Amino acid sequence: MKPEMNEMFSNPLSFQPVNFAAIQMPSALRMVLPDAERVPQGYTVDAEGMLHFCFYYPNAESVSVRNVLFATELHKENGFWVGEADWGKGFVACCLIVDGSMTLSQFLPLCFSDNRPLNYVDIPDGSTVRAVRDVSHGIVVQDFLKSHLTGNAERINIYLPPQYLSEPERRFPVLYLQHGIGENETVWVSQGRINFVLDNLLAEGKITPFIVVMANGMQTEADEKESRLHCGSFHEFLLDDLMPYAENRYRIAEGRENHVMAGLSMGSIQTSRTAFLHPELFRAIGLFSGFLTDPLSGYNDHLTPERLAAFKASGTTIFRGIGDEDPFMQVFTSNDSLLEHAGIPCDRRIYHGNHEWNVWRQCFVDFAGQTFPIR
């Protein structure tokens, strides 16, 4: 069955397909283009999962579409550049190369990755859990707070379930959810589509409603000489700034039994550091392509024998998932030994895939279902 195009293209900038994007021409921008100047989709996906590209660059000499694994060369037909490719299933970040230069294309949806806006395609994988279905929808709120750690205003995104509006006296458990390196607080919605995932799981009666708080883990502090990244001290921001702000402003239930944290890649490091330094805070953590040790900064003071024993005694549960082709699998298995030696159990899962969103999407669905079941 052919997917609805708004399900493939929906992103924070535009929910609708970009089929009326302005083509490259010397004339001034116009609000409405004549029918003859309207252009096809930047990409479509057929029933077999093949990608079909079509871009309008009439003056270009060469155009290709590339991701980390594939480069698809396009050919020119009357000013349009067309071609097809088999890139597998799910989310794939990509870029256009026009006459040798990387181009942020107006014909493809946008995400944030590698510390910059980036184009992507989303190829249906047969799952409907991320689809835009006719169910009650939660809302994603954009909010701001002043950080004592960085001295900067920091933006946060908060998912509020449908019941947050329909049951105004109710308080909800919370998940603090962190992204990976080079990303920001928007990606769990744009790449992960977790708002639609949670809407659908709630509609199916598979989970209890909860709030999700998403913050930027790539925080910087600057002076006259340099800018410094605060990845390794994110737990300080979480404890001193984020949690007090979120729990005063939104109807978050009190108590450790209502607090959970999770993250992917770098976000899993931040989750591990926070939870092992402060095991009294969370009843469960989720580590997607998950690290216990910190290969980025080398800070492993959260994993001393005393910290491991305190974490074990707290009873905090651990969910860990990784792709079977992930280049950090050796770190993952080494961390298995660390947990086993400390006598700390975990729910360990292997998915098919690399260090990528198609694995993290599956991790999130399984973690949400396991951690917030209907009671």
Describe this structure in words.
By secondary structure, the protein is of the alpha+beta class. The chain has two domains: 5-123, Immunoglobulins (Immunoglobulin-like), CATH 2.60.40; 139-371, Alpha/Beta hydrolase fold, catalytic domain (Rossmann fold, 3-Layer(aba) Sandwich). Helices cover 24% and strands 28% of the residues. It contains nine helices and 20 strands. The protein has helices at 5-9, 162-166, 187-190, 194-203, 234-249, 266-277, 305-314, 329-342, 357-371, and strands at residues 43-45, 51-56, 63-66, 71-73, 75-77, 80-85, 90-98, 101-103, 110-113, 116-123, 139-146, 153-160, 174-178, 211-215, 220-222, 227-229, 259-264, 284-288, 317-323, 347-351. Strands 11-12-14-13-17-18-19-20 form an eight-stranded mixed β-sheet, with helices on both faces. Strands 3, 4, 7, 8, 9 and 10 form a six-stranded antiparallel β-sheet that branches. Strands 1-2-6-5 form a four-stranded antiparallel β-sheet, with no helix packed on it. A hairpin with a 4-residue loop joins strand 3 (63-66) and strand 4 (71-73). The two termini are 35 Å apart. Mean pLDDT is 89; it is low at 19-27 and 29-34.
